Amino acid sequence: MDTNLELLRKMRIAGAYADAGLKVLSKNSLFDEYFQGAEFILPASYFLGNVPDFFSVVRGEREALSANTSLMVNGRKQVFALKLFMDKDSRFLFTAHNLTVEGNSELNLYGSDEPFIPKYLHNSAPMLIIDAGQSGRILDANDAACSFYGYTKSEMESLTVDQINTLGPEAIKKEMSLAVLSKRNYFNFKHRLKNGTVKDVEVYSSAVPIKGKTLLFSIVIDASEKKMYEVLLADLNARINERVEAEKMSCIVTTSKYQNLFEMSQDAVIIMEMDENGKLNFADVNRAACSLFGYSKEELMKKRSRELVYDDEEFKEYLQRQRLALDSIGVHEGRLKIVRADGKILTAEIMVRQNFMLGKPVVIAVVRDITERLNREKELMEKDMLVIQQKRMVEMGGLLSAAVHQMKQPLTAISLVAEVMTSEPENLEESREILKTQVQYLNETLTEFRNYFSSAQENSVFHLVEQVDKVINIAKPLLAVNGITVNVSGDENLTIYGLSGDFKQIMMNLVMNSVDVIRERGINNGAIDINVFRSGNHAVVNFSDNGGGIEESLLPDEIFKPFFSTKGDKGTGIGLSIVRSMAEKMGGHVKAENSLSGAVFTLALNLT
């Protein structure tokens, strides 16, 4: 048996634990003695008056219920102090203290020096014993009552009810008579404390006859907070009702506005609802949707999504991506080829969103024809590629000029060795090795040129430092002619996935830009430093030179604008513009700034 029930047994109090249906889970022996066979707390047949509302505790409307009432137990009318509350284990503890012993009340000590209220109840809720006669004098008060009202025990026992109850004397007598006659044992009063504070209280009063007098045993519960919450709740309910009415009116207005916006939209809008089989059906379409697909509204409403797309396999893949996106974030954007009623195939950009409309879940699809836009983008891309190719040709001219100068040395060496081979046949093997070395150098140089001007057009994994070295090898003759040294450092194992040709184009543009600046400004001992490293989810290439820097008015973005050049008629103005566009194409970005000695370009590319 539970420890609490054992303690109650020693105190001669019947006790039982019950579930949320007030069915008895466990009980002590006194409970069995008083309420034999009772499976619930407590059958109405036991009560001689009103049955306390035990379920108000279960519903959480009050923390505890206390009541003094008369019960018919074992064939006799007996007075019990009943209490129900939830314990720390979230079970409901019911106690029944028998105030009647062998037909006499335990409160029959009226007139003696002993207290009316037993000691073990002094730390419970505030309790009062009141003379229900003309005086309404307080005969006894437990410690909790003294603490609540702010009086000492002797002060409490010198008071009458009308000194703590704010009702008038006649009203108090009327309420007390209801308790005496057992017509009502629950009251809401305002009680005045010693310090003058008035508090809302709930009072549970039961009549107890003792030696010819009728006393009221009252339990007082502070309801101030409850009253405050009731006021707040009432105010909240009023506000909610106002909001509901406002929402109703807003809904009427919104519906009208929605219809206007729906029909005025330049984009095709399709609203779909899900049927009982989980399939989406068209619930509404606007005029733009009818125009896009080439059907009347009646015809389009009868269509299913699958009938409006060009490729079934593409549509299946699209739907898989859409379901994943809707389940995770509630919105999806994608592209599909759609078919008009006249058979024309268009490319559409589609945004699908889950929403609620007039209280019902719907899926809204906004469809936009982007066929012309894609054609324009393709034309621009082709023009851009032409411009880039032209720039490469300009670069090649400068590089070849420097390369020819650089190649004169190995060609001169080959010529000399050829003469030596005829005049000194004994050194034939040594001469062959020299020729082989010089030819290999020329071949590597030409291969680097060919690879640069026919860059790979397929994505692949490549090492950044390796590609930087290839660019520097191509530009080496031009760098040597202008007396510029290049230092490449950093993580040689760092790789990214993308077009290596685009990356080399970025690096070559930066190198050529630095060469032009260093040469034009007549800077001796020109230097370029390139450092490659990882930072978070980015591969970073830090490119700097000692060319004197960029004019501050051109930072941070003016320097990257198309056809802007600091070289006058000598420049094309697309070098750094290509750097930025290619960086963005690779999923990265580039920024420009100045150091103490020159310009610094930082290229960051996504690793994922």
UniProtKB/TrEMBL annotation:
Reactions this protein catalyses: ATP + protein L-histidine = ADP + protein N-phospho-L-histidine
Ranges where the PAS domain occurs? 254-313
Q: E.C. number, please?
A: 2.7.13.3
Q: InterPro entries, alphabetically?
A: HATPase_C_sf, HATPase_dom, His_kinase_dom, HisK_dim/P_dom, HisK_dim/P_sf, PAS, PAS-like_dom_sf, Sig_transdc_His_kin-like_C
Which residue numbers delimit the Histidine kinase domain?
Answer: 402-608
The protein's UniProt keywords, in alphabetical order, are: Phosphoprotein
A GO molecular-function descriptor: phosphorelay sensor kinase activity
* Gene3D superfamilies registered for this protein in UniProt: 1.10.287.130, Histidine kinase-like ATPase, C-terminal domain (3.30.565.10), PAS domain (3.30.450.20)
- Which SMART domains does UniProt cross-reference here? HATPase_c (SM00387), HisKA (SM00388), PAS (SM00091)
| Superkingdom of source | Bacteria
Q: What is this protein called?
A: histidine kinase
Organism per entry:
Seleniivibrio woodruffii
